[in-house]
Fold:
Amino acid sequence: MNMTANGMAMLVLTADRCRTGADLGAWLGQGGGEGLRAALRDRAGVIDVIERAGLRGLGGAGFPTARKWRAVAGQPVTERVAVCNGNEDEPGTFKDRFLLGETPHQVIEGLLIAAVAVGAQRAVMYVNPGLGAAFHTAREAVAAWQDHPLLADAGVALELVPSSGQYVGGEETALVASIEGGFPFPRRKPPFPAESGIGGKPTLINNVETLANVPHILRHGPAWFRGLGQGEAAGTKLFSLSGDVQRPGLYELPMGTALERLIFGEGGGMLSGKRFKAVFTGGPSNTLLTAADLDVALDFESVRARGSRLGTGAMIVVSEGTSIPRKVAEYVEFFAHGSCGQCTSCKAGTFQLAELLRRVESGFATQADLRAMRALCGLLPGSGRCGLIDGAVTVVASSLERFGAEYEKLLIGG
Amino acid sequence: MTTPNAIPWAEALAALAADAPAAAKLGAEEKSALLAAWHPDNKVGGMTNLLVGPSAGQPCPVDLATLLHANALADDMDIAGAATVDTDVLVIGGGGAGCVAALTAAEAGARVLLATKLGLGDSNTVMAEGGIQSAVGADDSLQMHFLDTLRGGQGMGDPELVRALVGNGPAAIRWLIERGMTFDMEDAGHGAKRLRRKRAGGTSAPRILSFKDATGLEIMRVLREATLLHPKITVWNRSPAVELLSDGAGRCRGAAIYSLYRHRFVVVRAGAVIMATGGAGRLHINGFPTSNHLGATADGLVLAYRLGARLREADSFQYHPTGVAWPDALRGQLISEAARSLGAQIRNGRGERFVEELAPRDVVAAAILREIGEGRGVERDGCTGVLLDTPGLERAKPGILAGSLVSLLHLAHKSHTDPAREPMLVTPTLHYQNGGIAVGPDGTTDIAGLFCAGEASGGIHGRNRLMGNALLELVVFGRRSGAAAAAAARSGRITGRANLNHVADWRRALAAAGLPLDVRAPMLFPPVAGFDIAEDRALGRAAAA
Structure:
């Protein structure tokens, strides 16, 4: 692992020199643009570099980035599109807001390198206008690139498209529909966007954080990037730490750092000295981690081995003072609002789950309601076009499994 | 607060027999010097600066700062499984301001839930004896009332708030009369009657309207009946607010209410919340006795401050000059300023009139403390004070005690004395919180959806309140905040769930400032009540099992 002089893990994406705001001159002045120039010198070799670096999709899936790029690059057509997915809207995730608001040029340069690598003529920054100031900074940053010779050298048309702001608009096929000008509704897969995306063209879609790493990899090389992680894991990861910790915030740590270090080291420990209870990982759509999982290394494989997923790197920490059913009710309400309504099972299912949880949290539920929730958790998964309903079910089922007693206590007569 | 150097009771009675000239009127500089030296607000060591929250850096009495710096009583776990009730407007507090606000909001069409930790009307409003100020006389004007109020507040009041106060005064009196309030009347000739007006300390015209010396009690009677009868108002007695709820985006979304009947929390989600929790006398700031009732524990300040509402003049309290000093059992209870406005004199142990009786309250209180502190006080059975010359008043205006000062008579009766024959021993008593939650003219606070009215609010009285302006304030600002809250509940864009998220932020701030997390507030009930919320909940669980 690369260390700085004082023994702290090295900051890459959140380093001060990257925090240039929309000022392109400042970004290029400290070595920005070198990654893109390297890519332009050897267009065909970029994907190999990314592959050797072991970069993976940091928007939640952890899919190897090089494989995704290869799939787009290998399509037997001439026109392709590359998109940076900046629709971030999950509760507890705020990394893209930081990257777009503070360090937009590393993201844009990453997108341009991706476009060069896959042979795309069009590069789209797809950004949630709900991000407020970060949205405006991203827009200014995109404008700043327009007259720069580097962009002309890349031969890519760069633009910013505001997303609808809806949660579901971050799903890849909904993103395609949205950029095409339609409602942000997910579509059936296959075909995947890599084969047929925007306007039928092969479309590469990567998360903001994934692309932000790309210029650094091209500049410093794959070995350097691999060295940033702990153990087998490569690179760093941004963690959106929130909930009942002393110091919530955005932390960049080596991929593979232990959960305990994040919460009790960076996060300053639990609020009010209350005992740790659980973590909603990667946004709420994943299985809860509990006290037994504090030692888990935060990388894609290790977290998956505990039955959960790293997801976006959001860690919503819950202490003994916070009620799991109330927290779950909050998330399911978010999903119920966020459901696009195309699939009846999702539209009605998230609503019913939200209603049942409301009954639980206000003390009016019975055993029959818990049975109904469990039954829905069995019925609903896989019934939607996208993963939204599965996400809602996962958080309910996992909380019922691990914190069933807490639900029972809130029932009438409990 | 016995002082070794005091003049014995018998000696002081002898000195009282002789007539004494009125005290000289004090100039502005003399007043300032007197206040600086003797007013309890200026007591060395009594103040500290707030360390966390939106008014960090501002001075505040140590006793109040301890509560403002405290950790929350309620956790997210506590409200899980709690019954949830929705309403348009939630009013916290069942005194005068709370009832006026509830009535006004309900009359504007809102569904109102009024939660009070004691019973409806059990508040300081009923203890307001002197009267209510409003410029209704032909020789008076709104302008004079405005200037008197600002001047009385040492120029620290917010002119916009004072303008709203005095400007709405006559309408407030009319509103009270329309709801059945009785005022003392006088003969206007030709068989007609008009409102009887009395002078108050610090005013330039007779402006006090009253009902005997029980004006607050009469106002509360009217308000309580109207509130209980209103079909759109639900009243919850014995239901203190333990924490406000927020929507995570800075808007107030209701409150976690604890029901002493059910021994459980109830979550009330509201479109707007009106804080009408009154004052802080029961904190016994600087060790003073208080005229305040059991509920005056600054709960509203604690809750609003934690949610992010600024306070102002939180370091300024009014010590009423004439609290009972003897007998000890009645210590701190209030003798109305009505006695002085009708002509009763204040004398020290040497029989001297050492202060202009109708000077503003802060000045009179400071002068009394000076007399006591410099050894010219009067001592009776170990209690020290100065004399309120009720026998002299009765001699000058025979029958006045029985006719106009019934509360005073009642108090004397409880101490087994006859005020027509024996003067009363008085000493300043902690009476009123001059500052409070910073508000705008419609009772708005720094927090969207959170309104405030009555003694809990700050900015109207500056650093000293005139007699009669508290009752006027609760009617005027109760009405203004009630109307504004009803409108906000109708039009407010509500996002997010009702949550305790702000409490986590607060706890982080406490930890960062090195403040203890085991001190909890709001106090809800003074220590003498022996109430502990955890024990009370356990009682409920035991009863259910």
Q: What stands out?
A: Chain B has a mean pLDDT of 94. The longest strand of chain B covers residues 264-275.
